[in-house]
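Review form for a predicted model. The reviewer records the input and the model, then writes brief findings.
Reviewer: anonymous (R2)
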Amino acid sequence: MSFQFFHLWPLSLVLLVLFALYAFLYLRKMGALPVRVFVEEPARRYKRLASLFLATLFLALSLLGPTWGKGKKKVEESSGEVIFLLDLSWSMEAFDIAPSRLQAAKAIVRSLVEENPGDRFALVGFAGKGRIFVPLTSSREGFLKILFFLSPEAIEQGSVLEEGLKKVRELASRSPRVKSLVILTDGEFFSRGWREEAVRLAGEGLRAFVVGVGTPQGERIKLPNGEFKRDPWGNTVISRMKVEDLEEVSRRLSARLFLLTEVPPGEVSRRISSSVKRQSRYRVITYPVDRTYLFSFLFFVMSLVFLRWSRK
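Model under review:
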């Protein structure tokens, strides 16, 4: 037999009441309290005390949550596999979305991972090349740790979306259960080869979501040295979210498009989370059988016995 210890506060109250009762009886015995004298048979007194002791014992045991034996039940589990494709080009360091485009995109990824513990996640980054930073995993702690340290410096620079899409297709081919893809980008792509790659990826049957990060008005790009990015002629670069390209990516992937200029990040996370493809499966789990009801019943019976033998 084992105990769950989920009723320790009520048990402490019971012990306090018992201590007060003991103190009362002790003081009465010492003559500090008035005593009403009446004659009681010894056998009757012993039965009353025994029933009180047993009632107290059964109450204490029931409050400790006794368990023994194992029960089995079938539970339904729902899980999915999601690949995040994160834009790591320097344009994601623009701060027209506070605190920056990249940090806003990371916050959405982090929210989806934390709120869906039953899912598995993978993380792919792209800029000049595509790179798998986290293969499919159920370790949220490890995933979030790598996500935290990701920056444009972690990958060769550029903005070639098809390189990231190729890595996504590679991951999807490894696991037939992969059903969802979330792309987070500002839409500034330096090549047009992504159109054909998007069509090939659409044939994998993924449920895709595209999150547009940035504003059409654009903003400067802050570099790690604190300066703003300049073009070869010394002009300050203004990076703008390309809504037209984001809409075309969404069409070719049959994806839902969310623009952070129109939908708050929290709402984006909620909508994606509720739409991710998940598979249900059943498994049998064992659990300790709670026997609290048995000792509660015995407490009730002994309480009645105590009241019966307490009548004068």
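Findings: The longest helix spans residues 8-29.
Further findings: The longest strand covers residues 66-79.
Recommendation: see findings above.
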